[in-house]
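Listing S7. Sequence submitted for prediction.
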Amino acid sequence: MKNKKIVFDKAYYDSLMKEFGYNPLEFEKINFSLGKLKKDDLQRMWLCHHNGSNFSRHLKNNLKVIVTTGFGLSGEPHVGTLSQILRSIILQRAGIPVQIVLGDLDAYNGKNIPLKKTLQLAEKYKKFILSLGFNQKYGSILRAQYNDLSALRTSYLIGHFMDDDMFDKAEEDLHSFYHKRGKVDKEMSYRRRLSLNLMIADFIDLHIKQNYRSVLVMLGIDEHQYVRFGMEAVKRIKESRQFDNFNMTLAAMYSPMIKGFYNYPKMSKSFPKSSINVSMKPEEIRKKIIQGEGKYDKPENNVVYQMMTSVSYYAPKKIKELYNLCLAGGLEWEKAKREYAEVLIDICSKWKK
């Protein structure tokens, strides 16, 4: 898939199932609830899951569970990053603890960002995420990688169960896209292996250090191979019996790729017209939201509706209403877009404070 031009449509998602051998019980449409979020609510915000039903059952049985996500700190937040942050807050408000990992070391090794710059970004990101409403109480965690020595030790311990083949298979679908633009090393270099190893440790350390029974990883669909890597590591650790009482369950819930404005297939920093970032002027954000949605055949393929579901504080009932408005089009949908533009401008303004 790395050598093909990728279009994030239904055929792409179907091809994932076939290429990686996921059966319907492992990688499927969401068929469970999480806390206060019903099945239909989750289906509007995420694309599919892997082992999520077990996570839901553990949550209902009052076992110790947590959702984890994170992102590399190579620059200011873009819409994809915002969507992970806001989804985390929505899950928190539904009664589920969430970990957000600020990937300062990931950016340093994985994307060659100077250490001083990424450490500074970690502080700014933390303030930004808290200003958006993330709550560090009730089991939730907001942390950078640099100062977490437990996760760094776990990365070394679990490295014992990793091999070259696992790393080679873990290239994300957009790797060649990023490499051509000078963002990452071409090959799975030692630096990138360290970065990936630590990412997996960020998942597994939740069980080793804090005894979380079930961990659900929340990432974009283009990063699914990272979770597959993590699940293979967990499987090998269990089979080795080297760690006492190692009995974690790793699950995943994937969000779809967000389309680009003006008919671009996806948002990309390389095509400024296609995307929105937190530093844009309010009038530019308004123009893209109101005029730039492009052609679409259903709400799932409408960039503005996609953002409404993932980069907002809208309640599930409101999102359902917006779905119907987008489907119908017309003046009411135009009004909803203008209202959403102001919501997004307010979210972005918090980065500048």
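Caption to Listing S7: primary sequence and predicted structure tokens for the chain studied. The domain at 267-352 is CATH 1.10.240 (Tyrosyl-Transfer RNA Synthetase). The chain has two domains: 10-255, 267-352.
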